[in-house]
Amino acid sequence: MLFSALMTLIRGGRVDFLSIVMQIAAVVVIIFLVLPFHEFAHGFVADKLGDPTARYAGRLTFNPLASIDPVGAVFLLLFGFGWAKPVPVDSRYFKNPRSGMVLTALAGPAANLIAAYAGALIYYALIAFGPMNVPIQYLLIFLNYYVYINAVLAVFNLVPLPPLDGSKILAGFLSDRARYLFYQYQGMLSMIGMVLLVSGFLSGPIAIAENAVGAFVNRLAALPFEFFGLI
Question: How far is Cα 37 from Cα 34, in angstroms, rounded to an integer?
Answer without folding.
Answer: 5
